[in-house]
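anyone seen this seq b4? input:
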Amino acid sequence: MATRKWRKSRREQRQFWKNATEEARYEYLVDSVEALEEIVDFHNCEEKALLDLLQKHVERQEKVAFIEIGCGPGRVIRKILRRVLEDPDTWGKSIKYVVGVDFEIKMINRAIESLIKKERAIRKLVMRGTAYEVAETMNTPVREVKKSLREKVFFIDADARFPFLRCESIVPVVAMMFGTLGNIPETNSILQRVTEICWPKGEALLVVFDRKNCAMGKERYSKLAQLDFSPLNGTEWKEEEGVGFFKSPSGFYSRWFYETELRSLLQRHFEKGFEITSVSKTGLSAVVRPKLMIRRKIVSYLASRQTPDKVPYLRLTCPVDGHDLEKGGLPLKQDSSIKCSESKHFYNIHDIMGFRVPLLEVNG
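predicted toks r here
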């Protein structure tokens, strides 16, 4: 009997792999319990650092918007939602929004599918009764609890010039996990975006891979490529103008940083009071805050134009000129088409399994 079950399981795995998309394969190899032991350990360490950071804001009873740039298939977002469900009286009241930003709409689709179809962060807790307890406390049906979670979570499609989020009365906490910062060649540009999101009182957790351990990275990418994850086929280590990175013929890119290199880069954009610490065996992390001079620059810019009354929610602002997008505040309305009056960029709101995603439709 056990042998037949094992054979059936192997057949199911082969069938899954045959039909799976690249996004599903990525989640299986990198963001699941089936991932390499080294990757699982890395995830556990960086997740602990993030949860400790958010816990400080929760203990201060601040209203927080958690924004993950490079959310991938939603591993971190599911972790945050699990805390929200497990502790509705503290985390549930403090974490007002959970926003996933990714550079591929396919990965956003996968994140939403993983969150809802698998419901790792929701279904298990409902089975244990947590959602029912929340519903009883709130005097609300369980389906309304699930609906409120959907209304708390948003996904933003980040193309080459994605609309960044600005908070006025909510503390933004930004995360770039698992080396996401190194996956973006325009490093200074994305760090400038992070400062714009974090202003005036937010902070960001940045996790990168340690260049002194790049030999371990080469071994990791080789193992993943052998498991038929095609984007990593032919990955090679390269060094150009002092920058070290892995690159594959299919476009995979991952920059790794020395600690001194990372510190020099971050000091251009953030206050110097941050510390760089180790993450597992191959990573480095830092909690950073915007520089005061950047805050003054933005304060001066906002004072130079008419601004609407402060609203207690996140705003989407145009990546071209920084103006607020019309109807660009969260929560987004499904039937709305948000636009910038200055640059004429339009974003239509698409509904994906109950989540609303703004996609750039017309470049005027």
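The longest strand covers residues 95-102. Residues 1-8, 303-309 have pLDDT under 50 and may be disordered. kinda curious what u guys think
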